[in-house]
Amino acid sequence: MDFAKLRAACRFAAFAVLAGFTSLALAGGGDSEGGPAVNQLNLPQGVTPISREIYTLNNGMLVVCLVIFILVFGAMFYSVLRHRKSLGHEAATFHESTKVEIIWTIVPFVIVIAMAIPATQTVVAMKDTTSADLTVKVTGYQWKWGYDYLSGEGSGIGFLSNLATPHSMIGSPELNEPAHPAGDEYLLDVDHPLVVPVDKKIRLVFTAADVIHAWAVQALGVQQAAIPGYVRDAWFKADTPGVYRGFCAQLCGREHSAMPIVVKVLAADAYSGWVKDQQLAMAAKADDPNKTWTKDDLMARGATVYAQCAVCHQASGKGMPGAFPALDGDAIVNGPKDNHIALVLKGKNQMPSWKQLSDVEIAAVITYERNSWSNHTGEAIQPSEVKALRSAS
Amino acid sequence: MSTTIDHLHGEGAAHDEHSHDHHPTGLKRWLFATNHKDIGTLYLFFSLTMLMEGGLLALALRTELFSPGLQFVDPELFNQFTTMHGLIMVFGAIMPAFVGFANWQVPLMIGAPDMAFARMNNFSFWLLPPAAILLTASFFVPGGATSAGWTLYAPLSVQMGPGMDLAIFAVHIMGASSIMGSINIIVTILNMRAPGMTMMKMPMFVWTWLITAYLLIAVMPVLAGAITMLLTDRHFGTSFFNAAGGGDPVMYQHIFWFFGHPEVYIMILPAFGIISQVIPAFARKPLFGYASMVYATSSIAILSFMVWAHHMFTTGMPVTAQLFFMYATMLIAVPTGVKVFNWIATMWRGSMTFETPMLFAIGFIFVFTMGGFTGLILAVTPIDIQVHDTYYVVAHFHYVLVAGSLFALFSGFYYWSPKWTGHMYSEARGKFHFWNSLIWFNVTFFPMHFLGLAGMPRRYADYPLQFTDFNRVATVGAFLFGLTQVYFLFFVVLPTIRGGAKAAAKPWEGAEGLEWTVPSPAPFHTFETPPVVE
User: Fold this and answer.
1) Is position B405 annotated as part of the catalytic site?
2) Cβ–Cβ gap A249/B390 under 8 Å
3) Of B126, B262, B523, B529, which is most buried, counting CB atoms within 10 Å of its CB?
4) Which residues of A touch B307 (CB under 8 A)?
5) Residue A286: pLDDT band by 50, 70, 90 thresholds?
């Protein structure tokens, strides 16, 4: 544990109390598009039949609970005010009444059953993932989402979806003040949103690569855990085009709060256009597996891939003492390259496996790590070497 | 507390003719303690210390969450703080506090001279400090404390560094301590009641602890099993929770919550017991529906084994399982409702006064019931799926664990501390503590309902700007709630031990029970000749 941080926390503890009294300043900014509103008080109604049913269900339960609450505590506070010794009230001596006790067992039982009936219908509807128009596989990674279109229009498309908010906006305990002011979509934007057509039944199948994540988008009425090694599914049918936002809801490690979800619902023809664009772009970007890469190309590609490693190991390669080792001057990074490749493929302790990256990406990032900061191995790792090790393991 | 021993050498010696036996003083008195009152005191001080440590961790979390962005702690350290806050509060503060109450009160309330197994009692307490040291020390090992959340879900917990192993070992030790404590409580209650005290004449606090002790014995081994499998997955190549080796990460959750849900009732049933003692005393009227209270408590305990998967609705279960766990969970509202109605019927047409124990008891009923209602709402599977793992859940379980368990513990402290210390606490300070606790508790946790409904996930080190205002309110409330508890320690607990108005044997006009038949402070040895209950 870092004592400098503790001291900073203690300083702030004093500050927070003072600030609480003096400057309960309201946050500036506005609502996010399709995500949380400023000081939102209730569930969103959402844009699917299920999310609206849940909204109604919750409001109904809230009203019933509130009525019971007022009746029960009305009685209690009446008693508290009237049956006081200071008012000279004499204590009665009754201490049981079978009739009353049976009544207040049966009445709540009936109320509970009345609540369970509409809820049962919604549960059954939520579980019906049959006859979907489009199926997308959602994979949770530490710390991003992967989307692969399995069947329906657009099948074959696949991409990763990373947080778009730059780290300079988030700040860090060392900086204290973020370098950039945050906008309304702070921690809510991603580089590649999930895109789906409106009025179509979308089935999502969930899995994860490392630990359990949870894909939660309230506006669509979906929250489902993504479990490594297992497949689960859920569905939604959005009836309004627009952007809808969500979060990873299951604690998944350091960057748990930095893997938001954005779902873009498009009209049918706009969706077809998007699918065409994606297919063209994928064809153009595909790496030729037989190409021999130069070190400069690998370094340039590796620098972009390394952004994902920098979350823990830092852009400086210095890591975070005690939690995440430095790559700068590290024995594995400067040692035999096969060990380095194997570590990236398999992961170790808190470091997840990165096998979901392509051979080219792994080769590039390892080349980058072995030739950056004070590391000067001079090696250029070829994708074929990664491929050989991957199939060997 | 230290006054019991003074009492023994003073006027109490005449009362207590068997006090000629030698007993150690100073450090040895506590290290080798076999007296239920001394051990009770040790438990209570231990839990108060842990409450402060867990509270500091909570304030560190609230500090970081005062503003969006990362200002003070790294997200990794933030996750360590959330995890340790949970573990320390559950296993270090709330559970040992109730065991401390049981140690002090169960023998006094059933007319027994001590707990059944005095030496095991010593051992079950002295296992706790090493466990607390392991948990605290885990912050300082490479990689820091475990940051997998107090639920220690696999496979995230398999990724952790050595801090995880320390936490596993600490939980093992605390589990052993709980099991021994429970065996002691069960044997004491079943075998050592005063002549004439039949089961259905036992005070409610004793009843609730009897049922709680059975719950503990049933589920602590289950937790030990889950974390042992975690340990072997981490170090010995097993694959209980690793799909690649044929295991299932969700199985960990099933086993954990099979422990975890009864655990929730372990932390609330003795609280129900305390409230059921306090309300009749200050309403000057017998507890309404004693028999139905016993049956309601037993039903809650039995149902608590059948609802665990409501913590896991989003893992993806068959529709039949979702419906079963939803119905079973909603059913718990019925016996819980019966208890609340009984308490209010006890107050009804009583002759009430509002000393601090009664204030905390009424505060408990009022605020705990809000937690009960959000529990009922969360039991509804579709709603749970929308707010699972959001701040709505955080609000819910703090309403039942802080406003529930902790407020009941405060109520019990004010009610029985005259017996423990021989001094009356300051009523003005007690009331100050109550009103500040009640107000700042609600300022802290009520806005979290809104945050959760708007979708803010729990265990987030950073959050979108739209959530800022409610987080600020919660942080301010948390600091003032924390300060109130520091006030409780330094301006209520310690001064009451040191001095104050002398307490009568029965300081409360309407109180009933054997504990009020012995002098205040209770002599070192009580009921060496069993009292006879009519």
Assistant:
1) no
2) yes
3) B262
4) none
5) confident
Going across the sheet that includes A202-208, the strands are: A158-161, A144-151, A134-141, A202-208, A232-236
> CA-to-CA distance for B2 and B12, rounded, in angstroms?
14
Q: Are strands A194-197 and A261-266 parallel, antiparallel or unpaired?
A: parallel
Rounded distance between C-alpha atoms, residue A234 and residue A229, angstroms: 17
- Other C-beta atoms lying within 10 Å of the C-beta of residue B51: 22
How many other CB atoms are there within 10 angstroms of residue B402's CB atom? 20
- Angular region, B49: left φ>0, alpha ψ -120 to 50, beta rest: alpha
Q: What is the value of ipTM here, to two decimals?
A: 0.90
Distance from CA of B118 to the nearest CA of A (A): 37
Residue ranges of the alpha helices (H) in B310-426?
A: 319-331, 333-347, 356-379, 381-387, 391-400, 407-421
Q: Which of B351, B376, B381 sits opposite A65 (nearest CB)?
A: B376
CA gap A260, A302 in Å, rounded: 25
Q: Do B369 and A73 touch (CB under 8 A)?
A: yes
Tell me if chain A has a CB within 8 Å of the CB of B141: no
Q: CA A59, A64, A68: angle at the middle one, nearest 5? A: 145
Nearest to B464 among A32, A97, A109 (CB): A32
Q: What are the C-alpha distances in Å from B67 to residues A143, B61, B392, B474? A: 22, 11, 19, 11
Q: Does the annotation count B114 as an active-site position? A: yes
Is beta strand A144-151 parallel, antiparallel or unpaired with respect to A202-208? unpaired
Classify burial at A125, counting beta carbons within 10 Å of its beta carbon; exposed 0-12, middle 13-18, buried 19 or more: middle
Options B7, B62, B85, B525, the catalytic residue = B85
Which residues of chain B are under the pLDDT cut of 50? 1-20
**Residue B326 and residue A252: Cβ atoms within 8 Å?**
no
Q: Which of residues 100-119 of A touch B (CB under 8 A)?
A: 100-101, 104-105, 108-109, 112, 115-116, 119
Backbone angles phi, psi at A232, to 5 degrees: -125, 165
Residue-wise pLDDT tens digits, B425-456: 999 999 999 999 999 999 999 999 999 999 99
Taking the Cβ of residue A249 and every Cβ of chain B, the question of whether any pair is shorter than 8 Å is answered with yes
A83/B352 touch (CB, cutoff 8 Å), yes or no: yes
pLDDT digits over A219-242, tens only? Answer: 999 999 999 999 999 999 999 999
The answer to whether B277 and B218 are in contact (CB under 8 A) is no
Cβ of residue B136 closer than 8 Å to a chain A Cβ? no
Q: How far apart are CA B411 and CA B438, in angstroms?
A: 12
Q: Please give the pLDDT value at position A9.
A: 53
Q: Do A257 and B461 touch (CB under 8 A)?
A: yes
Q: Where are the alpha helices (DSSP H) in chain A?
A: 3-22, 49-82, 98-127, 167-170, 268-285, 295-313, 331-334, 337-346, 359-370, 383-392
pTM of the model: 0.87
Is the bond leading into B104 cis (omega within 30 degrees of zero)? no
Query: Side chain identity at B391, as an amino acid letter?
Result: Y
Give pLDDT, residue B175: 96
B276 is catalytic: yes
CA–CA distances in Å: residue A344 to residues A327, A333, A360, A362: 12, 11, 13, 8
Tell me the count of A-B CB pairs closer than 8 A: 385
- Residue A18, pLDDT above cutoff 50: no
Active site residue B475: no
CB contact (8 A) between residue B73 and residue A9: yes
B476·A21 Cβ contact <8 A = yes
Q: Tell which residue, B39, B31, B68, has the closest CA to residue B456.
A: B68
